[in-house]
Amino acid sequence: xxxxxxxxxxxxxxxxxxxxxxxxxxxxxxxxxxxxxxxxxxxxxxxxxxxxxxxxxxxxxxxxxxxxxxxxxxxxxxxxxxxxxxxxxxxxxxxxxxxxxxxxxxxxxxxxxxxxxxxxxxxxxxxxxxxxxxxxxxxxxxxxxxxxxxxxxxxxxxxxxxxxxxxxxxxxxxxxxxxxxxxxxxxxxxxxxxxxxxxxxxxxxxxxxxxxxxxxxxxxxxxxxxxxxxxxxxxxxxxxxxxxxxxxxxxxxxxxxxxxxxxxxxxxxxxxxxxxxxxxxxxxxxxxxxxx
Length: 292
Hints:
By secondary structure, this protein is of the alpha+beta class. The protein has helices at 10-43, 87-90, 97-103, 117-128, 147-153, 188-205, 218-225, 272-275, and strands at 139-144, 174-180, 209-213, 232-240, 246-250, 258-259, 265-269, 285-286, 289-290.
Protein backbone atom coordinates (compact mmCIF):
# COMPACT_ATOMS: atom_id res chain seq x y z
CA UNK A 1 0.00 0.00 0.00
CA UNK A 2 1.45 3.39 -0.93
CA UNK A 3 1.38 6.41 1.31
CA UNK A 4 -1.31 8.12 -0.74
CA UNK A 5 -3.64 5.25 0.09
CA UNK A 6 -3.55 5.76 3.85
CA UNK A 7 -7.22 6.01 4.93
CA UNK A 8 -6.61 8.71 7.57
CA UNK A 9 -6.38 12.41 6.79
CA UNK A 10 -2.84 13.78 7.40
CA UNK A 11 -4.01 16.15 10.19
CA UNK A 12 -5.60 13.32 12.19
CA UNK A 13 -2.54 11.18 11.63
CA UNK A 14 -0.36 13.93 13.11
CA UNK A 15 -2.51 14.15 16.24
CA UNK A 16 -2.13 10.43 16.92
CA UNK A 17 1.58 10.69 16.30
CA UNK A 18 1.92 13.39 19.01
CA UNK A 19 0.22 11.32 21.75
CA UNK A 20 3.29 9.27 22.78
CA UNK A 21 5.42 12.43 22.74
CA UNK A 22 2.95 14.13 25.11
CA UNK A 23 3.00 11.17 27.52
CA UNK A 24 6.79 11.17 27.43
CA UNK A 25 6.95 14.87 28.37
CA UNK A 26 4.53 14.29 31.25
CA UNK A 27 6.64 11.38 32.48
CA UNK A 28 9.82 13.47 32.37
CA UNK A 29 8.14 16.32 34.29
CA UNK A 30 6.78 14.06 37.02
CA UNK A 31 10.11 12.27 37.33
CA UNK A 32 11.90 15.57 37.84
CA UNK A 33 9.44 16.68 40.50
CA UNK A 34 9.78 13.39 42.34
CA UNK A 35 13.57 13.31 42.18
CA UNK A 36 13.93 16.97 43.21
CA UNK A 37 11.62 16.40 46.14
CA UNK A 38 13.24 13.17 47.39
CA UNK A 39 16.87 14.02 46.82
CA UNK A 40 16.38 17.65 47.82
CA UNK A 41 14.93 16.58 51.16
CA UNK A 42 18.06 14.54 51.89
CA UNK A 43 20.64 16.91 50.44
CA UNK A 44 19.28 20.07 51.96
CA UNK A 45 21.14 19.64 55.23
CA UNK A 46 20.21 23.04 56.52
CA UNK A 47 17.04 24.96 55.81
CA UNK A 48 17.34 28.55 54.68
CA UNK A 49 16.35 30.93 57.45
CA UNK A 50 16.20 34.58 58.14
CA UNK A 51 19.87 34.32 59.18
CA UNK A 52 20.76 34.00 55.53
CA UNK A 53 18.85 37.08 54.52
CA UNK A 54 19.94 40.68 54.63
CA UNK A 55 19.09 42.32 57.92
CA UNK A 56 16.26 44.69 57.16
CA UNK A 57 17.14 48.37 57.41
CA UNK A 58 20.86 47.75 57.88
CA UNK A 59 22.11 46.41 54.59
CA UNK A 60 24.45 44.06 56.43
CA UNK A 61 24.47 40.56 54.92
CA UNK A 62 24.67 37.61 57.29
CA UNK A 63 26.49 34.56 55.96
CA UNK A 64 24.71 31.27 55.40
CA UNK A 65 26.20 27.84 55.95
CA UNK A 66 28.06 26.19 53.05
CA UNK A 67 26.08 23.03 53.82
CA UNK A 68 22.93 24.49 52.28
CA UNK A 69 21.88 22.78 49.03
CA UNK A 70 19.05 24.77 47.41
CA UNK A 71 16.66 22.97 45.08
CA UNK A 72 16.51 23.66 41.37
CA UNK A 73 12.75 24.08 41.48
CA UNK A 74 11.79 25.28 45.00
CA UNK A 75 8.58 26.86 43.73
CA UNK A 76 7.11 23.38 43.20
CA UNK A 77 6.91 22.76 46.95
CA UNK A 78 7.11 26.09 48.81
CA UNK A 79 6.10 24.66 52.19
CA UNK A 80 9.13 22.39 52.49
CA UNK A 81 11.64 24.83 51.03
CA UNK A 82 10.03 28.29 51.00
CA UNK A 83 11.23 31.25 49.00
CA UNK A 84 13.95 33.25 50.84
CA UNK A 85 12.40 36.14 52.72
CA UNK A 86 8.87 34.73 52.55
CA UNK A 87 6.58 34.37 55.54
CA UNK A 88 6.84 30.58 55.31
CA UNK A 89 10.61 30.82 55.63
CA UNK A 90 10.35 32.92 58.77
CA UNK A 91 8.38 30.10 60.40
CA UNK A 92 11.36 27.76 60.15
CA UNK A 93 13.79 27.26 63.05
CA UNK A 94 17.47 27.66 62.18
CA UNK A 95 19.62 24.56 62.48
CA UNK A 96 22.90 26.46 62.64
CA UNK A 97 22.58 27.61 66.25
CA UNK A 98 26.22 28.64 66.56
CA UNK A 99 25.75 31.11 63.75
CA UNK A 100 22.76 32.60 65.53
CA UNK A 101 24.74 32.93 68.76
CA UNK A 102 27.70 34.67 67.14
CA UNK A 103 25.50 37.06 65.14
CA UNK A 104 23.28 38.10 68.06
CA UNK A 105 23.75 41.64 69.39
CA UNK A 106 21.82 43.80 71.83
CA UNK A 107 19.81 46.30 69.80
CA UNK A 108 18.54 49.55 71.33
CA UNK A 109 17.31 51.38 68.22
CA UNK A 110 14.22 50.12 66.41
CA UNK A 111 12.23 50.74 63.26
CA UNK A 112 8.71 51.89 64.00
CA UNK A 113 6.85 49.06 62.33
CA UNK A 114 4.90 46.43 64.27
CA UNK A 115 6.07 42.92 65.05
CA UNK A 116 3.46 40.28 64.25
CA UNK A 117 1.81 38.61 67.23
CA UNK A 118 2.63 35.28 65.59
CA UNK A 119 6.36 36.06 65.89
CA UNK A 120 6.00 37.25 69.48
CA UNK A 121 4.30 33.96 70.37
CA UNK A 122 7.23 32.10 68.81
CA UNK A 123 9.54 33.95 71.19
CA UNK A 124 7.57 33.07 74.31
CA UNK A 125 7.39 29.48 73.07
CA UNK A 126 11.18 29.45 72.79
CA UNK A 127 11.33 30.78 76.35
CA UNK A 128 9.06 28.13 77.84
CA UNK A 129 11.17 25.38 76.23
CA UNK A 130 14.36 26.48 78.00
CA UNK A 131 16.33 24.29 80.41
CA UNK A 132 14.86 24.27 83.91
CA UNK A 133 16.01 22.62 87.14
CA UNK A 134 13.80 19.69 88.08
CA UNK A 135 11.50 20.66 85.21
CA UNK A 136 9.81 23.13 87.57
CA UNK A 137 9.34 25.77 84.83
CA UNK A 138 9.04 28.68 87.28
CA UNK A 139 8.25 31.34 84.70
CA UNK A 140 5.45 33.25 83.07
CA UNK A 141 5.53 35.75 80.21
CA UNK A 142 3.59 38.88 79.33
CA UNK A 143 3.60 40.04 75.71
CA UNK A 144 3.18 43.81 75.55
CA UNK A 145 2.29 45.14 72.09
CA UNK A 146 -0.59 47.54 72.69
CA UNK A 147 0.66 51.02 71.86
CA UNK A 148 -0.46 52.76 75.05
CA UNK A 149 1.09 50.05 77.24
CA UNK A 150 4.31 50.01 75.19
CA UNK A 151 4.60 53.77 75.66
CA UNK A 152 3.84 53.56 79.39
CA UNK A 153 6.41 50.80 79.93
CA UNK A 154 9.27 52.69 78.26
CA UNK A 155 10.00 55.16 81.14
CA UNK A 156 10.13 52.22 83.58
CA UNK A 157 13.33 50.94 81.95
CA UNK A 158 17.00 51.98 82.21
CA UNK A 159 19.35 51.46 79.25
CA UNK A 160 23.07 50.85 78.88
CA UNK A 161 25.39 53.77 79.59
CA UNK A 162 27.38 54.62 76.51
CA UNK A 163 24.48 53.96 74.17
CA UNK A 164 21.77 55.88 75.98
CA UNK A 165 18.01 55.62 75.80
CA UNK A 166 16.49 55.00 72.37
CA UNK A 167 15.76 58.45 70.89
CA UNK A 168 12.23 59.47 69.87
CA UNK A 169 11.12 57.53 66.83
CA UNK A 170 13.42 54.59 67.63
CA UNK A 171 11.78 53.15 70.75
CA UNK A 172 10.82 49.47 71.09
CA UNK A 173 7.53 48.48 69.49
CA UNK A 174 6.91 45.49 71.78
CA UNK A 175 8.15 43.88 74.97
CA UNK A 176 8.21 40.48 76.63
CA UNK A 177 8.11 40.67 80.41
CA UNK A 178 9.60 37.61 82.14
CA UNK A 179 8.21 36.76 85.58
CA UNK A 180 9.54 34.21 88.07
CA UNK A 181 7.50 32.04 90.41
CA UNK A 182 9.29 31.46 93.76
CA UNK A 183 6.57 29.00 94.77
CA UNK A 184 7.65 26.69 91.98
CA UNK A 185 11.39 27.07 92.55
CA UNK A 186 13.63 29.06 94.86
CA UNK A 187 16.14 29.10 92.00
CA UNK A 188 13.78 30.72 89.51
CA UNK A 189 16.35 33.40 88.47
CA UNK A 190 18.55 30.68 86.95
CA UNK A 191 15.68 29.19 84.98
CA UNK A 192 14.34 32.59 83.88
CA UNK A 193 17.82 33.51 82.64
CA UNK A 194 17.80 30.41 80.43
CA UNK A 195 14.36 31.38 79.12
CA UNK A 196 15.56 34.92 78.41
CA UNK A 197 18.53 33.69 76.40
CA UNK A 198 16.26 31.43 74.34
CA UNK A 199 14.06 34.43 73.56
CA UNK A 200 17.06 36.52 72.48
CA UNK A 201 18.32 33.82 70.12
CA UNK A 202 14.88 33.18 68.66
CA UNK A 203 14.43 36.91 68.05
CA UNK A 204 17.77 37.04 66.24
CA UNK A 205 16.74 34.08 64.09
CA UNK A 206 13.53 35.90 63.11
CA UNK A 207 15.45 39.02 62.07
CA UNK A 208 14.33 41.02 65.12
CA UNK A 209 16.41 43.26 67.32
CA UNK A 210 16.13 42.86 71.08
CA UNK A 211 17.73 43.84 74.36
CA UNK A 212 17.67 42.18 77.79
CA UNK A 213 16.79 44.84 80.38
CA UNK A 214 17.35 44.12 84.05
CA UNK A 215 17.14 47.64 85.49
CA UNK A 216 13.37 47.94 85.78
CA UNK A 217 11.04 49.92 88.03
CA UNK A 218 9.12 46.81 88.98
CA UNK A 219 6.65 48.56 91.28
CA UNK A 220 5.43 50.67 88.39
CA UNK A 221 5.45 47.73 85.97
CA UNK A 222 3.49 45.57 88.42
CA UNK A 223 0.74 48.19 88.63
CA UNK A 224 0.76 48.85 84.88
CA UNK A 225 0.43 45.20 83.85
CA UNK A 226 -1.60 43.87 86.82
CA UNK A 227 1.13 41.41 87.87
CA UNK A 228 -0.03 39.28 90.84
CA UNK A 229 1.88 39.36 94.13
CA UNK A 230 3.08 35.76 94.00
CA UNK A 231 5.19 36.43 90.87
CA UNK A 232 8.52 38.28 90.86
CA UNK A 233 9.76 40.47 88.04
CA UNK A 234 12.90 39.09 86.42
CA UNK A 235 13.58 40.92 83.15
CA UNK A 236 12.06 42.83 80.26
CA UNK A 237 13.03 42.05 76.67
CA UNK A 238 12.62 45.01 74.30
CA UNK A 239 11.79 44.15 70.70
CA UNK A 240 11.53 45.59 67.20
CA UNK A 241 13.17 45.50 63.80
CA UNK A 242 16.75 46.83 64.16
CA UNK A 243 17.62 50.39 63.18
CA UNK A 244 21.30 50.32 64.17
CA UNK A 245 24.47 48.38 63.52
CA UNK A 246 26.38 46.78 66.38
CA UNK A 247 29.77 45.04 66.26
CA UNK A 248 32.07 43.47 68.83
CA UNK A 249 35.58 44.61 69.69
CA UNK A 250 37.91 42.00 71.16
CA UNK A 251 40.15 42.66 74.14
CA UNK A 252 39.39 46.29 74.90
CA UNK A 253 39.88 47.34 78.53
CA UNK A 254 36.64 49.29 78.91
CA UNK A 255 33.33 47.47 79.15
CA UNK A 256 31.32 50.43 77.83
CA UNK A 257 30.48 50.54 74.12
CA UNK A 258 31.57 53.38 71.85
CA UNK A 259 30.55 54.48 68.38
CA UNK A 260 33.08 54.53 65.57
CA UNK A 261 33.30 57.16 62.83
CA UNK A 262 30.66 55.35 60.78
CA UNK A 263 28.21 55.38 63.70
CA UNK A 264 28.50 51.64 64.39
CA UNK A 265 28.24 50.77 68.08
CA UNK A 266 31.35 48.77 69.07
CA UNK A 267 30.85 46.56 72.14
CA UNK A 268 34.00 45.32 73.97
CA UNK A 269 34.27 41.58 74.66
CA UNK A 270 36.87 39.83 76.81
CA UNK A 271 39.18 37.47 74.94
CA UNK A 272 38.84 33.68 75.37
CA UNK A 273 42.43 33.55 76.66
CA UNK A 274 41.31 35.58 79.69
CA UNK A 275 38.34 33.36 80.46
CA UNK A 276 39.01 29.73 79.57
CA UNK A 277 41.14 27.31 81.58
CA UNK A 278 41.99 23.76 80.57
CA UNK A 279 41.58 20.99 83.17
CA UNK A 280 42.65 23.24 86.09
CA UNK A 281 41.95 26.87 86.82
CA UNK A 282 44.72 29.14 85.58
CA UNK A 283 45.91 26.87 82.77
CA UNK A 284 44.92 29.40 80.17
CA UNK A 285 44.58 28.80 76.46
CA UNK A 286 46.69 30.96 74.19
CA UNK A 287 45.55 30.74 70.59
CA UNK A 288 44.03 27.34 71.27
CA UNK A 289 47.23 26.01 72.91
CA UNK A 290 47.50 25.60 76.72
CA UNK A 291 50.03 27.86 78.43
CA UNK A 292 52.72 25.85 80.24
